[in-house]
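Write out the bound-state structure for zinc ion.
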Amino acid sequence: MDQTVKEIFKDYPKFYIVDCCVVFSFFNDSIHVLLVKQDHGPSIGTWVLPYGFVLDNEDIDNSARRILAAKTGLENIFMEQVRCFGEANRYPYERVIACLYYALINKEDFDEQLNKSDNTKWFPLTEVPEMKYDQNEMIRAAVTRMRYRTMVKPVGLNMLPPLFTMRQLRKLVEAINNKPRDKRNFRKIVEEAYYKDHADRQKKFQTRSCSLSVQRKIIRTIPERKIIIVMLEELKRKVFKANIDLVKHNLVLFTWGNVSAIDRKHNLVVIKPSGVSYDTMTPDDMVVVDLDGRVIEGNLRPSSDTPTHLVLYKAFPSIGGVVHTHSTYATAWAQAGKDLPNIGTTHADYFHDAVPCTEDMARKEVEGDYELETGNVIVKRFKDINPVHTPGVLVKNHGPFTWGKDADEAVYHAVVLEEVAKMAAISFTINPNLTMSEHLIEKHFNRKHGPNAYYGQK
Ligand SMILES: [Zn+2]
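---
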């Protein structure tokens, strides 16, 4: 270095600089902070913010990223500087200036790394312990900055999984703003923000009563990551309505029935909750599960028949909705262990072949994963049957399952199945030796489903 410059600098002190980081995530309905167990020095054994010294030739921001990666394994995350903490006596041993950052992460992305050591722990914001020096003050400063930033930019979404629900979004907004939101109003705002174009939205929101900051946040939130939840809300309403339709069509007593539908794009299934009375059920009670049966959203347990539905969705990729009932006549055929033969044009219009009855289930299938195995016996029975042409089955000694391109069509097929099962039962009592010609079956099935279908409106 130039001698004169050296001269100038020799009169000034040298300080240490550390980068500290407040890592936020959102889960269990509250904002959490990640702390690290200190393993050396005067604070050994206490919880501290992840920190480290800035090295020679290292940019201060890069340093923060390096330190956080080293301490916690967290990489490629949203991170911003809050401010410097430079009080002369903030650290009693040496003069250390702390540069504070905050990061927003989705906890699930990092569970694997974080679980590797017991040196890190998530604390709800309200349960952060008393820490040494100015660390609690740092957390307060980071919270203030985070709250402000999430108001003006949709960065808060970094704390949610890529696929999140309306409820999670609302709880996040509530946690950030520290005040509850009206559920219905919130949904309305999100849906409008999602569906309307931007200009239209602006106009609408000016007349709305909710706070401007929340509106802004939600508006900006939406395009950032597409909110799948909005689609699921729609699907939940459809599945709810389809379940109510089962009652309307007299296909279920008590809670003996269930409808589900799948969002194929995201492989999420919406299904009726287990054992909830149809009288009190609401669309919000519908449970969202993934194809492995994990509950993605919902406070209630999903229908106990969920595993059967999931097997069907996996085996029949073209179906979008599944219905199960114990409707009287279809169940009577299932209990009799008989395929429901195609003996009339009503049947032939919807089911190309006989509606097949499954085989007996083995003891180990019944005693094992019963509902899943129920799905498997159905799939086995459809080895040589096209599930689109024959959208239903009779599970032996149990009852019917039907399906369709969506929940509504699955319900429709459940109604048709019950009706043709009833007709067939009566027909056989009148004439046990009745027949129906192959060409009449073909005629009826093809006028609706064949290449030259002409039934109904174009
Ligand atoms: Zn059942």
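---
The chain has 16 helices and 14 strands.
The chain has three domains: 15-158, 160-221, 230-449.
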